[in-house]
Design goal:
By secondary structure, the protein is mostly helical. The chain is about 65% helix and about 5% strand. The strands form 2 sheets. The chain has a 3-stranded antiparallel beta sheet. Strands 1-2 form a two-stranded antiparallel sheet.
């Protein structure tokens, strides 16, 4: 096995002493939570020549706690708000214009997206030309495009950082509360027609989409507050964790909100589409847990190998996020082509047998994702520059909001002039 020592030492040497490694670890955990969550609760069922989407949460509602563990978007927005606010303040101090600051961040965010869209545009044309049913193509394409809503919201909040950086999280939380009162209170639910789904008046039906911005503004503004005031105390972490968890439990048990924190096919109400008050209070509990973990994470990440693993995942966070559904689809398609309907891969997710079989498929999904990473990581990380006149190689890498620029010597040691610059 290749010795990773030189790589670990290069990463350690390129990391500034004042970098808060725990923030990067929270981002890495949030990305991994989304990936594993999708792989566990997304089923592609082969039936009569077509493939359609389903979820074990539809047949096994007792598995709802899985969504409590792996629906980690609030932590990502918490870190995004903290990093975005600090980055913008640093850019202003250097005299960097808002346009240049935003343009740099948007390029990093959306350059990997272009690769996904191009590949799937070609794949879609090939599937339709080969006679694949439109329902199957639509199901697959929906899985690929569904993560992009998150990126659009994150990009919008990033662009609004100068406006929202000083906004207290209670303001967007109040918006979510009042929107849900309209959606699910007497005005919104009085005419459900027996279907279980509120029959909103025309303008009221669209009001819920205000929560797409307001709901994710809550953790984003909490992160910006963290950037302004410094490290929150443990009292803050416990208050958010206990208060958020209690509020979520009350909303689920007594106010009719669903227990699952992800969408369930066929359910009358989704906690994410658009975000509900229960999703936001649950996110606050997650943010509290994340803040309480900062201390232990900092102590753990003084180990160079642990930090190297977190840094490398952050290098490819967008690649992992954008291609994890493709990896699952590729394994599903190859399995169907090679062996027909396989348990946990093409069958209806209606029992514990499917869950156990799906757990066995997770390493296969991971290997397929590794192939996607190897093929498309350069769109996120940038390409290696040509060797310099002395035979040294110059690299540029984006590591969690920082650009690491350095010369790597032929023996694998970082050159003395290695520099780390804030992005």
């Amino acid at each position: 096995m290749r010795d990773l020592g030189p790589l670990v030492r290069r990463i350690e040497a390129a990391t500034p002493p004042d970098r808060d490694r725990a923030v990067d670890a929270l981002r890495a955990f949030a990305i991994l939570g989304v990936v594993l969550g999708h792989w566990l609760v997304t089923a592609l069922v082969a039936d009569s020549g077509t493939v359609h989407g389903s979820s074990p949460l539809r047949y096994l509602p007792q598995l709802a706690p899985i969504s409590w563990v792996f629906q980690t978007l609030a932590v990502f927005f918490l870190v995004g708000g903290q990093v975005g606010a600090k980055s913008y303040a640093s850019a202003r101090a250097r005299g960097t214009t808002y346009g240049k600051w935003l343009g740099t961040r948007m390029v990093r965010l959306f350059r990997p997206v272009a690769a996904v869209l191009v590949v799937w545009a070609v794949a879609t044309g090939a599937m339709l030309a080969s006679g694949t049913g439109f329902e199957t193509v639509q199901t697959l394409y929906r899985l690929i495009l569904s993560p992009l809503w998150f990126l659009l919201v994150f990009a919008a909040l990033t662009a609004a950082t100068p406006l929202v950086a000083r906004l207290h999280p209670l303001w967007p939380l109040a918006v979510v509360l009042y929107v849900d009162l309209f959606r699910f209170g007497p005005a919104g639910s009085g005419g459900s027609g027996g279907s279980g789904r509120p029959d909103w008046p025309g303008w009221l039906g669209g009001l819920g989409w205000l929560n797409v911005a307001a709901g994710w503004l809550v953790p984003y503004c909490l992160g910006a507050l963290w950037a302004r005031r410094g490290m929150p105390g443990r009292t803050t972490g416990w208050t958010l964790l206990v208060g958020g968890a209690t509020a979520t439990a009350v909303l689920i048990l007594f106010a009719g909100y669903p227990a699952s924190m992800v969408g369930v096919p066929g359910a009358a109400i989704s906690n994410l589409d658009p975000p509900t008050l229960a999703a936001v209070t649950f996110g606050l509990a997650q943010c509290g847990a994340a803040l309480l973990l900062l201390g232990p994470l900092r102590r753990w990440l003084v180990r160079p190998r642990a930090w190297a693993a977190v840094a490398l995942l952050n290098l490819s966070a967008m690649t992992v996020f954008l291609w994890h559904q493709t990896a699952m689809i590729a394994v599903t398609a190859l399995g169907l082509w090679a062996g027909g309907a396989l348990p946990g891969l093409h069958t209806v997710p209606d029992g514990t047998g499917w869950v156990l079989a799906r757990l066995c498929w997770l390493p296969v999904f991971a290997m397929a994702l590794l192939v996607c990473w190897a093929a498309f990581r350069t769109y996120e990380q940038g390409r290696r520059r040509a060797p310099g006149p002395s035979g040294q190689i110059v690299n540029r890498r984006v590591v969690s909001g920082q650009v690491v620029s350095g010369q790597v010597m032929g023996d694998g040691r970082p050159a003395p002039e290695t520099e780390v610059r804030r992005a």
